[in-house]
Amino acid sequence: MKIMRALVAGIVVVGVASAGHRASAQSPRIDIANAIAWLPSNTETLIVAKGPIDLGETADALSDLSGHLARSVAGGPLGDAKGDVFRLLSGAHIRFAVEGSRAFRAPRGLGLGPYEGCHILAFENVDGPVIDRFMSALETAGAAATRIAGVDAVLVKWRAEEDEWSAFVVRARPDVIVIATSERMLTEVLDRAQRGGGGRAFPRSLQEWAGVDTSASVWAIRHYVPEGSRSDPTSPLTSEQRPANEPDTLAVGMAVSVGGRPGKFVAHYYSTNSQAQAIARRLWSHPREGLTPLFASGPKGDVRISGAPRSADGRSMLALVLLAALGHAIYI
Question: Residue 33: exposed, middle, or buried by beta-carbon count in 10 A (0-12, 13-18, 19+)?
Answer without folding.
Answer: exposed
